Amino acid sequence: MIDTPLLSVRGVSRHYGAHIGCSDVSFDLYPGEVMGIVGESGSGKSTLLNCMSGHLAPDAGEVVFDTRADGPRDTVTMSEPERRMLSRTEWAFVHQHARDGLRMGVSAGGNVGERLMAVGARNYGDIRDKATDWLGRVEISESRIDDRPGTFSGGMQQRLQIARNLVTGPRLVFMDEPTGGLDVSVQARLLDLVRGLVRDMGLSAIIVTHDLAVVRLLADRLMVMKSGHVVEQGLTDRVLDDPQHGYTQLLVSSVLQV
Amino acid sequence: MTDQAYNFAYLDEQTKRMIRRAILKGLAIPGYQVPFASREMPMPYGWGTGGVQVSAAVLCPDDCFKVIDQGADDTTNAVSIRSFFERTAGIKTTTSTKAATVIQTRHRVPEMPLSEGQILVYQVPIPEPLRFLEPRESETRKMHSLEEYGLMHVKLYEDIARHGHIATSYAYPVKVEGRYVMDPSPIPKFDNPKLSDSAAIQLFGAGREQRIYALPPYSRVVSLDFEDHPFEASKADHSCGLCAAEDSYLDEVIVDDVGGRMFVCSDTDFCEARRAAGHKGKDAA
Questions:
Q1: Tell me, what's the ipTM?
Q2: Is B51 a catalytic residue?
Q3: Which of A230, B66, B216, B225 could be stapled to B231 by a disulfide with Cβ–Cβ 3.0 to 4.6 Å?
């Protein structure tokens, strides 16, 4: 049993004036674990994700990440250069809209290579080889390497975004509605791909979504949020099959059966 | 109104003081873009308003002033800026690189190596090397302050992916003293090596963008590249048609409507000096 959590969130709160973004959230994420966060729109899922990934500064609480170099560090109080370095090397962030996470004016290869160059890769041949390899891993044809993401379909853009994020071998991936806006067959392929990558690379992931099918498929543990508070958390199957809190019961029973 | 109604070198003393402070800060932090309160100048943006303000701030009554535009002393921009300072500062002007103490330039570095005591003033249209990759100024400033320059290489990567080699041929990004990435203004990359270890002070003024940056003498300036695609200073593969120089940057001139062309030095002073010394190219009359 590994005893140091990869990410340890303690009492994270964020308010927007009088309005609560998220309030007093605490949990541990262990290496190799996938955590799902579900809840309705406006329940504070994305606020929490942004607080953990350094995009937003929480009003209170700490986010302790087990860095490769220095062991556990609080990312809220660490300096901005250090935090940005973490977000380039040990973290990955997959946006809901691929356009937010990609450089649309730069070719697919350039998009994948950017993080490599940002951490000091200066050999064109090596960068190109890595980019080709990663495009292959996310099932994008090698012949598209010099095309711009604008010419890609929505599903391909999303897969490109994943390749671009994983190329530097991060340990923790934040995903904000990774399958939002994709049709179901493309969703299924994407989920399959993500599941494979998470297993192969031993990644930890935090996935924010409102789609219960996504967490059922990917997440080991589940956290249910409502109005900024965590109302229930536990093993995914337990929470989905035996919901305790009234809101979770509502959520589970609201899923349409085909 | 007479010309005497102007303060020496057009700008008032307070403005010059403000610009000099920006220049000193720029010299203290080589390659760092110092914001300054650019003034309206009696010329349109893009015609050297930044360079003119920097020149006005550094000119002294006993300076000798030279202006070049694409290397030439006799083009519109060069002639009008030269006469502007003749009228408003009453200083000596010259076309000789050697005799000048202040040289304002657009898009070239003189062929002749500069010496200590000379000042080279560049006109800069866009001071931000990351501009076309990252449009947010707030973000590019953060990238400069945190030394996050991976994006600059993405541009070079794109060049190689598309053209098979680094096709950026002017405004080629450089790294100054191992710290700031700087846009050397749209000089041809042929001139990039001349920026490094130069004996002269090099000042860069961007009027519309309100930025000044600088290279103190003998600064180390390295052009960015990849290990397997090193930087190469390129020029047209010819010799000058007038003075037969092999090692100067050349302009291509179309001479008739049946495909005739000649290559001549873009640095007119350099070319004239060589011709006066007896060198003769194949197209010389």
A1: 0.85
A2: no
A3: B225
User: First-to-last CA distance in chain A?
Assistant: 40
Contacts of B153 in chain A (CB under 8 A): 117, 122
The CA-CA-CA angle for residues A186, A192, A194, to 5°, reads 100
Q: Give CA separation, B125 vs A82, B4, B15, B48, B129, in Å.
A: 34, 31, 21, 8, 11
Distance CA A100, CA B77 (A): 43
Classify strands B92-93 and B119-123 as parallel, antiparallel or unpaired: unpaired
Optimal mutation site among B133, B134, B157, B181, interface A, most CBs of chain A within 10 A: B157
Q: What is the C-alpha to C-alpha distance for residues A112 and B204, in angstroms, rounded to an integer?
A: 34
Q: Do A122 and B227 touch (CB under 8 A)?
A: yes
Q: What percent of chain B has pLDDT over 90?
A: 92
What is the CA A27 to chain-centroid distance, rounded?
A: 16
| A91-145 pLDDT, tens digit each | 999 999 998 999 999 999 999 999 999 998 999 999 999 999 999 999 999 999 9
Kindly name the residue from B205, B207, B271, B281 that is annotated as catalytic.
Answer: B271
B60 in active site? no
Picking from A116, A118, A146, the nearest residue to B162 by CB comes out as A146
Of B31, B50, B51, B205, which is the active-site residue?
A: B31
Q: Is B64 a catalytic residue?
A: no
**Per-residue DSSP letter, B155:** H
Cross-strand pairs, B106:
B69
To the nearest whole percent, how much of chain A has pLDDT over 90?
64
Answer whether B235's CB lies under 8 Å from B249's CB. Answer: yes
pTM score, two decimals?
0.87
* B162 contacts A114? CB cut-off 8 A: no
Percent of chain A with pLDDT over 70: 99
Give the up-direction half-sphere exposure of residue A156: CA atoms within 13 A in the CB hemisphere. Answer: 16
**How many CA atoms does the CB half-sphere of A62 hold within 13 Å?**
9
B243 is catalytic: yes
Task: With beta carbons less than 8 A apart as the criterion, state whether A249 and A233 touch.
Answer: no
